[in-house]
């Protein structure tokens, strides 16, 4: 094939899979993630109740908990053992047990206790329920306390102050609504985008090396690779920018700092990943193995970013592995720009680290296999 | 007798297609061992440690100092900075030096003693939810302890009936207790589910590419066992191979990482067999749709993150849009993860997960018959 027939634009025309990866898949997968977290925060999580007391106070507590949007308390069980089975098979995510004499002890100011067992195997849901139950039961306790004191002859303002002398006011900085959609979609998407970049780059290189040999001279080689990858890189970068637009449109994501730094960061991220993909292909010179190695290298990127589990609490090895992935540095940049509105001095380290990934590029260009052969026993041609 | 010989020969051919393929071996052996070490790596500490917070104290009273000591003593947080102004505090947060802020207003101690309701402001960095949760929990513990102490003092000073003081301070409470993962550790939360996902995804790559290469050979007219025999044998081979890895994962690696696991071997074996059968059939079905072996890896790579968040453990299935919760059941890993967690981590008897078992049986029937139809059609096209 002549060299003008093996450019990136040709690769896009010939390969529907590649076209999907740089065309419609990125926005579709971003929209899928937005759909997964469409609720923003978990709502109406099912909680089983075993009411051994059957007093008005026990029912009032249940009504109060049910009023919390996070909880759905309408799952009664007759005995603790029945409730436990429902909890084990995941039918309910927590089990509230209201003991005998709960109402009587409440009226006598004996401070009764109910227990809510929550499923901490499903940790996110479990913790969410635990905190909703604690908050909701504290306001129930405070209201009951005011009522008890009024009954004992206190005046209303005095009763209110005595029930809660110190009131905590909690502010969630950078994500006021505590939206999981904002928290997770904006961080999972870059990890998924990273995978699309590495896969698209490899598929493009495979197509090129299967269709025509690379020239030998370093400059000619660089030129051929530039003609091949430039359109793909541009489209992938554009896809990154589109995801930012989708965040803004669907999630109300508005960066605190200048979005310009993210645009630069995304360009560097595309190049950094492409450099690593080329390095891996240069080293193993085999289609399936190069893809498997890229999978091993980048598939767990999300876990190593430190968004869900803090990087400060990871061990040395995990931090090191995380540092080897471009996504870790990009996310550091994104949190600093979009959430914290941090000054330039904080943005420079991740930006410069992304540049470091380009160091092996000259070596990779030189060491890329000249050609890859197609084995007819390994693919179904139609 | 010759029927038996043909059967053994066919089985040997299937096993050879798996073990003689270096790319497939790399995924099954290399991949499964590597991932078992790599995925749990970030969570070795399991429970996040003390997070740094800043305190802006405008009161400078004895009670304010007591509150700061209580906050520092809470296991979730440590007081790392005492900024002099709000601007200084905000800069500390923006640079990631602290993840929380406690503001003690002027006149705090005086108002508490006079019985005026007083508010304390906390702020946490909600860019990281786990950190935020810990900061808020730590600060709330400190504030509640202080509040209870003040109430106790004033009740005693007023000469209230000591029997009724607990009820005055806290008329009732709901104690929350974690079950199944008593330490609420991240390792116990992520690893059991992700291990099922790793088994499933590597199986898709391996059985998928074995199928594609088998189709390629048949397409070129090379001699091969009849599909009616080859496909059941392929399913059986992968079920046996993966059963060995399930023992390694659910036995050796769970023990190594200290993951609680309670299922007895019988039910675990039964459910594993069913899960691997559904997953292999799903993989072969994929192998009939895709033209090149590397594309199975592409599909697996792109689907992994969406699967993690639709399988019900990382994000509650109850909070998914209904249509998404239903269509993701078509991927065997979702009922698989939910079933394994229920029997092995949550101690449910195998009878109680009839729903997951039913879905997996349904998927076996669906993909099994679909493969039959695809194989029939492609053979006709090839002729």
Automatic annotation (TrEMBL), chain A:
InterPro entries linked: ABC-2_transporter_component, ABC2_TM
Keywords on record: Cell membrane, Membrane, Transmembrane, Transmembrane helix
Primary location: membrane
Positions of the ABC-2 type transporter transmembrane domain: 17-359
Transmembrane feature ranges: 17-39, 180-207, 228-249, 261-283, 290-309, 347-365
Location(s), subcellular: Cell membrane
Record flagged with keyword Kinase: no
Membrane protein topology class: Multi-pass membrane protein
Protein's name according to its UniProt entry: Multidrug ABC transporter permease
Origin species: Vreelandella lutescens
Higher taxonomy: Bacteria, Pseudomonadati, Pseudomonadota, Gammaproteobacteria, Oceanospirillales
Automatic annotation (TrEMBL), chain B:
Stretches assigned to the ABC-2 type transporter transmembrane domain: 24-368
Positions in coiled-coil regions: none
Transmembrane segments: 20-38, 189-212, 233-256, 268-288, 295-315, 357-375
InterPro entries, per the entry: ABC-2_transporter_component, ABC2_TM
Record Pfam families: ABC2_membrane_3
Swiss-Prot/TrEMBL keywords: Cell membrane, Membrane, Transmembrane, Transmembrane helix
Principal subcellular localisation of the protein: membrane
Subcellular location field: Cell membrane
Membrane topology: Multi-pass membrane protein
Stored PANTHER family: ABC TRANSPORTER PERMEASE (PTHR30294:SF46), MEMBRANE COMPONENT OF ABC TRANSPORTER YHHJ-RELATED (PTHR30294)
Protein name per the record: ABC transporter
